[in-house]
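Just scan this pair:

***
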Amino acid sequence: MFDLGDPVPLSISITDTAGQLADATEVTLTITLPDGTSTVIGPIASTSPGVYDHDYVAAQAGRHVVRWVATGTNASAFTDSFEVAPADGGAWLGLAEVREHLKKSVGDGDDEKLRGFIAAGCSMIEARIGPVAPVTLTFDGCGRTVILERPAIAVISVVQVSTGDAVPEADPLAGTDGWTLDAGAGLLTLSRDYGRVRATVRVGRVPLPGNVRMAGLELIAHLWRTSQHNTSGGRPSLGVDETVVPGVSYALPYNVRQLLGLDKRPQEHLVVG
C-alpha cells in the first residue's frame, strides 16, 4: 500500500518468443484512477533491454488499475493494480507502538508490511465494536429516537430533512424543545416528532480505552506471527491463547475477544418444570 504523494514504482518486463528480455516497438501505460478517470503515459522508453519503468505520484486514495500495452515487435499486455491509503487511514495504533509490542527493531525492513497488518487489525476490531478512531458520521431517523453508532462524542448538527431547519439542543431547565444525547447508548432523543431528521455526529472512543488498545496490539501481533514462516519452512506453532475455539473465528484469538468483552453471552434462563 502507498500513501498519498508517494511515488509508486511501476515496471514491466517484456520477452521475445525465446523468453529473453527484448524491447517492443512501443510501450504505453494507462492508469485508471479511483474516480474512474484515466491517464495515458507513453510511449515509454526502456531502461534496459525489455525492462520499462515509470514512477507515478499518487494523487487519489483508493484502487488504481495499471495496464501496460506493448505493440509491434514482442507485442503483449499486462494488467495490475495498487492501493493508495487516504491521508487519514483510520488506524488508531501507530507503527512505533506496534513495533515495540512485537519487539522488532527499527530498520529491519518490515515497516511497510506492518502498516498493512495495523490497518487490518484496526478494521477487524472496529467491525465488531464500532468506531474507535473519532469520525464524523450522519444518521437519519424518524419519530422521537435516532439510533447512532456507539459511543457518541458530540452532536454537530440536527436538521429536519424536509425543511433544512436546525433542531436545537433541548434545555430542560428552560423547558425548550429539541434533542438530547445519550452518548453511551448511542441514542439521540427528540422532545417531539420533527419528521425525518438528519443528525451529524462525532463518534469514537476518546481517550482510547486500555482494553481496546491492548486488544489491537494483541490482534496485530497474532496476525503477524501466524503470517511468518519458521526456519523449517512451515507455520510457527501457536500459543495456548491462539488455539481454535469452537464457534470463534481463528483470525480473532480468544484473548482478544476477552479484552473486547466479546466473550460475554447472555445468561440462559432455565425452565424448571
Notes: Helices lie at 95-101, 111-129, 210-227, 254-260. The domain at 2-85 is CATH 2.60.40.10 (Immunoglobulin-like). Residues 111-129 form the longest helix (19 residues).
